[in-house]
UniProtKB/TrEMBL annotation:
Residues 1-28 form the signal peptide. Keywords: Signal. One of its GO terms (biological process) is mRNA 3'-end processing by stem-loop binding and cleavage. This is U7 snRNA-associated Sm-like protein LSm10.
Length: 136
């Protein structure tokens, strides 16, 4: 699974500023999610996007009457989620730390810095050009 988080700035903001990172850290595990209409889904959590839409494989959907339905794949829209059960064996703090560390580690900071240094140099060059134009 690709740990690198890809998404819009808004999704990135959610990742670092909400518990989205905790839910994301559960990818690859069996998770139970209560839906807002009193049904729930229990299955292998495949992906969590930046809105917290969830995709499951080999999942059981259980309706409010307790009838179970098996699905190869289920996609749960974030707005249908009431809450996500964190499995008991999961250390919440460690998972958050690891997930955020993964994200920070994967950032191509070196190249981004090179780019900004170049941009700064170019900007200074432009300013000098402008200044010299005024002098003439
Ligand atoms: C509950 O919500 C889920 C997700 O939107 C939907 O698939 C399911 O059919 C709904 N169940 C009931 C009983 O409304
Ligand atoms: C995920 O949820 C957001 C917000 O409800 C929605 O805009 C987006 O289209 C959803 N993604 C998918 C693949 O449905």
């Amino acid at each position: 699974m690709n740990p690198r988080f890809i998404g819009t700035p808004r999704e990135k903001f959610s990742f670092f500023n909400t518990l989205l990172c905790l839910v994301k850290s559960l990818q690859g595990q069996c998770v139970t999610v209560d839906l807002r209409n009193d049904s729930y889904v229990c299955g292998l959590l495949l992906t969590v996007d930046g809105f917290m839409n969830l995709s499951f494989s080999t999942a059981v959907y259980c309706d409010p009457q307790g009838n179970e339905f098996f699905f190869e794949n289920i996609f749960v829209q974030c707005r249908n989620i009431r809450y996500v059960h964190i499995p008991e064996h999961v250390s919440i703090i460690n998972n958050i730390k690891n997930e955020v560390a993964k994200e920070v580690r994967n950032k191509p900071t070196g190249r981004a810095m090179d780019k900004s240094r170049k941009a700064k140099k170019a900007y200074n060059q432009h300013m000098q050009t402008v200044a010299s134009l005024h002098r003439h």
